[in-house]
Amino acid sequence: MKLKNCLSLFGMAAMALASASASADTYPSKPIKIVVPFAAGGTTDLLARAVGAELQKSMGQSVIVDNRPGAGGNVGADVVAKSAPDGYTLLMGTVGTHAINQSLYPKMPFDPIKDFAPVTLVASVPNVLVVNKDFAEKNKITDIKSFTSYAKSHPGKLNMASSGNGTSIHLAGELFKTTTKTYMLHVPYRGSGPALTDLIAGQADLMFDNLPSALPFIKSGKLVALGVTSSKPSPALPGVMPLANAGGELAGFEASSWFGILAPAGTPKDIVNKLQQEIAQSLSSPAVKEKMISQGADPVGNTPEQFAAHIQAETKKWEKVVKASGAKVD
To answer: Which residue stretches of the chain are H helix?
Structure first.
């Protein structure tokens, strides 16, 4: 019995020593992987690739983006939660994976708080209500008031695309439905990319997409933007007002998104800090900052502690939204 205890203690000591050694070694010494829990083409993917490109320059190692869509981001997030805590597998988490899903899903494969080490909040992003161009022209929809009027007079006739069940895109639509007392059929996709493709093709009528992924199609005229879900207009989309500006039942409406880098729980603190410093530095550079703002994202780069506090606050906020909307995912 004593021998077993000694061996157990020795094993624990060896693990602690290995962790300390890994922490003290020059990091990174091999490629880093950023898991994106959605399909390519959406805002989560775009931001992960932007961060990855900057990390590759500053840290001297390849950064691979690995798309793992499914279950509103839970599939990809779970991969990272169960990965080795060595700083080589990271997650581009979202308001969905870390503040919404635990209120939507009756059973989660991971704990958004306990299973992750927050690194930094990369960006906050408004959602934008976009509609199919032909649909808008055919039904004389030019602004949020005409859209709301049409939705109220055609209950169940509109197909509302989203990047997946439980995402902020889905919840923004559910909040709109609850607020305006309208009914639209929710059609979940495995990411914004495929949802936008079907929206442009007319297979769906509308979507509350993250602004960065929808912006190119708005600018090219393939989609019509009716309003943003932030409290203020976006510099990237001049002339398009917040939905709240429509007043009445939509006064005070706000349902924006955010994206941040997280590592598996247990990742050495000095590695987490190094990643945060490198990402924050890149986000503060004039070139990266200007590019992100022009694409509709507001770069942040806060500390791990500030990001952790943000996740806690957002979890409470979206729990109330989920309950009010009645949205559930089996």
So the answer is: 2-24, 43-59, 74-81, 95, 101-104, 133-138, 144-153, 168-180, 192-201, 211-219, 269-284, 286-294, 304-325
